[in-house]
């Protein structure tokens, strides 16, 4: 069992992270769902209180950067928008859900389960003690978020039954109507046995084997009702406030730093990047970063993640590991000079 020597400091809105470019607040979006009215509030907060952008995260949430230390106005705006319904449980509302569920494919629409799970977790006082990194997932049977390293996941097998995954390992079959109760019970059990562990995979016997993630592809998709939607994937998961406002309706933020828009609009195609590269904020936003990783990452198009330090913030599980180091970058552990990155990553992408 892992032994933690420091407390969990995962940021939220009430407890922000003090970054080099100002305070950072993480806003939880259960299942990634956010209404048009809430998008307007997030855009306003980014524009008037932050760095002007909304930053998508690898857990289907958003972050606001460059904030003042006093976040009282931010808290008020987000609370009024319904984005902070349970202050005591704010950091533990980490719920992934299949982003296309109820729109296209899947064995069952898990969107009602997200609301049910959110309410059940927030109604259990003890679960406010979960680490901020503990992750729930509800997979509609397609296997997308079941592969995202959740601590607890209910994955549909058909329209009435699913299986509970603990750190990626299959457990018992659970009927749809009992899914939320079982997940809450398992989370309470984790609290009883976790010691100082933050994640279930840190416990004995839970090494985890979640499989390969299957992101929603950027571009148009066919809805089950015969219409079309679109998924946009901005470079580095960063959207300006005006771009956020341009969605013009309810959307779903995915765990792959993209946004599912139920109604197709051709003008939204320009929001997507044609590269699969990702990167942490790097310099100058993070004092721990050894390089301006986003400037270097813009030169490549491979499925790679650039990290400014060993923490590897936001790294997707299936991306080539590129970490800033003296003399260049460590690429999957081997030192590569900056001027050789394009060729080395292109070779890895062709394997």
From TrEMBL:
InterPro entries hit by this protein: NIR_SIR_4Fe-4S, NiRdtase/SiRdtase_haem-b_fer, Nit/Sulf_reduc_fer-like_dom_sf, NO2/SO3_Rdtase_4Fe4S_sf
Q: Which organism is it from?
A: Amycolatopsis pithecellobii
Residue ranges of the Nitrite/Sulfite reductase ferredoxin-like domain? 24-70
* Pfam families the UniProt entry points to: NIR_SIR_ferr
Which Gene3D superfamilies has this protein been placed in?
Sulfite Reductase Hemoprotein, domain 1 (3.30.413.10), Sulfite Reductase Hemoprotein,Domain 2 (3.90.480.10)
Sorted keywords for this record are:
4Fe-4S, Heme, Iron, Iron-sulfur, Metal-binding, Oxidoreductase
Which molecular-function annotations from GO does this UniProt entry contain?
4 iron, 4 sulfur cluster binding; metal ion binding; oxidoreductase activity
Q: What is this protein called?
A: Precorrin-3B synthase
Entry annotated with the keyword Iron: yes
Top-level taxonomic group: Bacteria
- Give the organism's phylogenetic lineage: Bacteria, Bacillati, Actinomycetota, Actinomycetes, Pseudonocardiales
